[in-house]
Amino acid sequence: MGIGHAAVALGASRAAPRVNAGILIFAAFLADFLLGVFGALGVERAHVPPDFSTRHYLTFTFPYSHGLVVLIGWGLLFGAIFCWVDRQDRVRALWVLAALVFSHFILDGLVHVPELPVLGQNSPKVGLALWNHMPLELTLETVMAVAGLLMYWKLDGGTRLSRWGMAVFMVLLTALTWTQLFSTTAPTQSQLVPTWIIAPIVFSGIPYWLDRRRVAARTA
Ligand SMILES: [Zn+2]
User: Fold this and answer.
1) DSSP code of 3?
2) How far is the CA of 176 from the centre of ligand 1 (A)?
3) Of the residues 13, 15, 150, 215, which has the fewest C-beta atoms closer than 10 A?
4) Cα(209) to centroid of ligand 1, in Å?
5) 216 CA distance to ligand 1 centroid (A)?
6) How far, in Å, from the CA of 31 to the mean position of ligand 1?
7) Which H/E stretch holds residue 125?
8) Which 8-state DSSP code applies to residue 186?
9) 194 CA → ligand 1 middle, Å
10) H or E element at residue 91
């Protein structure tokens, strides 16, 4: 899933308005960032199905970044690190961040084929394969993006830059998510690994910058 992760994070900004939306979005994408790290270490990877040109999606071996139990652990760790650095409203921030990291399992579990392991590569695997109905799946993500943005817009203290900038960012990320429907040539593992690492940083860095004045005004 693409924009859907950012959408859930923007929705969660209502529950943790003191936390920068960029941090929330990074939490929602943390599993993909970890996939890049474990991919670089050679322990996780993508596979290209023979019918990729008509399926438009890859399959994965990713027990350390996308497993049910490990994502609970990564979520608690990420939340704890954030609360150690930023001590305001820490209990709420911890739970919201941990829940967002874990939400990646739920959302990817909707779209992937059954390949998200419960605990370890040989455990039962989850996946409802909504990617097999890709226009429907992408429409669902687009609706989520609109809902997430509307919830972000309702936050107190939003500036013109934070509101409209976030709208433009979400439109661009939604368009980027839709390009999956038209992809007929699969990327190589050596192209994927840097993308998995860099994309979550860029997709959270831009909203972090857009949201910084709103957060500063709230915590002042
Ligand atoms: Zn993922």
Assistant:
1) H
2) 15
3) 150
4) 24
5) 31
6) 6
7) strand 125-126
8) P
9) 15
10) helix 90-111
Gap from CA of 160 to ligand 1 centroid (Å): 31
Distance 62 CA to ligand 1 centre (A): 9
- How many angstroms separate the alpha carbon of residue 130 from the centre of ligand 1? 14
Asked whether the whole model's pTM tops 0.85, one would answer yes
CA of 165 to the centre of ligand 1 (A): 25
From first to last of the 220 residues of the chain, give the pLDDT tens digit: 999 999 999 999 999 999 999 999 999 999 999 999 999 999 999 999 999 999 999 999 999 999 999 999 999 999 999 999 887 788 999 999 999 999 999 999 999 999 999 999 999 999 999 999 999 999 999 999 999 999 999 999 999 999 999 999 999 999 999 999 999 999 999 999 999 999 999 999 999 999 999 999 887 7
Q: Of 168, 71, 175, 159, which is closest to residue 116 (Cα–Cα)?
A: 71
Concatenating the DSSP letter of every residue in 23-78 gives HHHHHHHHHHHHHHHHHHTTS-EEE--TTHHHH---EEE-TTTS-HHHHHHHHHHH
